[in-house]
Amino acid sequence: MKNWGIKKRVLFLALMPASVIAFLLALHFITSGIQSLEDSLRERGLAIARQLAPASEYGVFSGNHDILQLLADSAMKETDVTAVTITNIDGAILAASGKSMGPPVLSDYKAGLFIAVADQGEVLSFSAPVSQSQTEVNDFLQDVAVTQAAAPKGKILGRVNLELSRENTRKHKQMLIFNSLLISLLGLAATALLALRMSRDVTVPVKRLADAVDELGRGRLDVRVEEVSGGELHTLERGVNAMAVALQAAQERMQERIDAATERLSYQATHDALTGLVNRREFERRLEKALVSSREDGRVHALCYLDLDQFKIVNDTSGHVAGDELLRQLTVLLQSKVREADLLARLGGDEFGVLLENCPLEQAQIVADLLRQTVKDFHFVWQNKAFVIGVSIGLVPITQECESLACVLSYADAACYAAKDLGRNRVHVYRIEDDELAQRQGEMNWVARINHAIEENRFRLYYQTIMPLAATDNEGAHFEILLRMLDDQGELIPPMAFIPAAERYNLMPAIDRWVVGTAFGQYWKILPKDSLNQRHTCTVNLSGPSLCDDHFLDFIKRQFALYHVPYDHICFEITETAAISNLSRAMDFIGELRSHGCRFSLDDFGSGLSSFTYLKNMPVDYLKIDGSFVRDMVDDPMDAAMVAAINQVGHVMGLKTIAEFVETDAVLEKLREMGVDFVQGFGIERPKPLEDLFQAALPLEAGREPERIVMRPLEQRALFPQ
């Protein structure tokens, strides 16, 4: 019943009580009718017996058989009477009519003083005494089988016996049952029809409401209910329709918002938020379609990969807000120089891409140079500061020979960086035989090798002694940590074979972290236990990208705390170029670690154009004189003058000087004469594995030179520090 619908429930509630009532009424009527039929049959039998017994008195008394036979035949004419016998007091039959169906009611005729009634199945038997005088019969005294009468007032002469058949009574009983059941069924049918009609009046509108609600639940909000009912159902119909109208209006409003949000998200997914140009994802999708049209239809397109020059200066000096405004203004200029059919996209940072569809290479070169000139002529002004930037453009023709999207983008990237390497602010066209691009591709191959080396722990640390040329107090060991890499066969690879690729593809921060962590972890194993009272100097090289890493300074501090390395035992070496190109970050980085006791060395000093200008404000402890001046200073007076000048300036500023690339005794003596503080190079000591320091104490005690290797001037070192 839990799963029944309203219609079934209404019919059940209507028919169940009616069925019970009909059954009870039918049972009552049948029971009462049957009892009435039985009583009627009994009464008629008693009445016949009462009349026949007195009438038989004379015949029994006189023995007149004819009179008695006539009385018996007359009684046989009464309804349902099947047999009549009249006997004397001794039980002898004086007259009989019909065929008896059972034995006499009383076996002792002499003793019978009452009208007896016996139920013998198919017949109802009666036996009444024939008295000599009138007898008063009391029909109200009766038990199950015998009806008592008043005691006779005269002598018993005989008995009258008669049998009444139940055949007609049975037929009447059957008719009574049939009629009662028929009437009940007709009543139930009428009740069912009435209940059905009533259920329709209720359930049909309710079902319409239920169906409408179900459809609304399925999302069909245009469904309406026909308002044809009355009373509460009409209120429900009107309410459901009002709810549907409200839901439909709400859905339409929501759909409008969803469509707007979808359109906005679709736009955001395919466009750059800052410039409004398509983003890299959408650009690559359109570029893929262009590649397909080239392969299948032979169309010729071109790809321009633009990378702004000197854009970082704007961000560093005026902030990212200025840089963002520059990009927005430049976007407007670039869009005005390309066709509507061309696709201009911002690929990230200060990089742009232009897809020139159906454009041969000659025309693409004209467009690319126009874009370059537009950027060059653009003067950006921010807070009374004027900036002039440039752009390096890599141009790649898209033809049937192009392999894949990744290849085309790789070619464009390599061509763009080749343009930067050749002097910036120029267009470089990709060609298979291009030497510059071949070098670029070689560097890109190094990227994979470097990543594998990091994953497989194939980097090794070496060290090279930095020797003092004069005795110093409490000066312990002084050496520089150098990096080497093992190839797949376990052979050593010098740093300058892979460092340029690592610097170009931003792998140096990861390498620097490995070097710092490994060097610090082995530091206490390297130092002899009896020399801890001396201040040793372990020099670790850092790259320019690491100085720009916002998290690198915190990483270094964690390594100091983790390995308990004294701050004043570590000297970080950075190149002059890295320091100048990231001046503000370098100053902050150096200042923070020097405040804890670290020292800093400026490598390759003299190679830059503005060295002395920036040196005044650079808080370093050592100047490393560029080896290109040191190597030939004995034979080249200009180199010697540069070394002397750098050494003198350094001393005036209170800095120690280190000369690298010292490879001959003549150079060493010349440097000693000039008063250079420290020397380093193959002529002093070749780089050795860091593990060698586990075997022996460091040789550089104050004022003592290590065993040097005397080399000819033409011998160049095969391995040198990064």
UniProtKB/TrEMBL annotation:
GO terms for molecular function: cyclic-guanylate-specific phosphodiesterase activity. Residues 200-252 form the HAMP domain. Residues 443-701 form the EAL domain. GO terms for cellular component: membrane. The keyword Membrane applies. The keyword Transmembrane applies. Pfam families: EAL, GGDEF, HAMP, sCache_4. InterPro entries: Cyclic-di-GMP_PDE-like, EAL_dom, EAL_sf, GGDEF_dom, HAMP_dom, Histidine_kinase_BarA_N, Nucleotide_cyclase, Rev_trsase/Diguanyl_cyclase. CDD domains: EAL, GGDEF, HAMP. Residues 299-432 form the GGDEF domain. The chain crosses the membrane at residues 12-34, 176-196. SMART domains: EAL, GGDEF, HAMP. Keywords: Membrane, Transmembrane, Transmembrane helix. GO terms for biological process: signal transduction. NCBIfam families: GGDEF. This is GGDEF domain-containing protein. It comes from Sulfurimicrobium lacus.
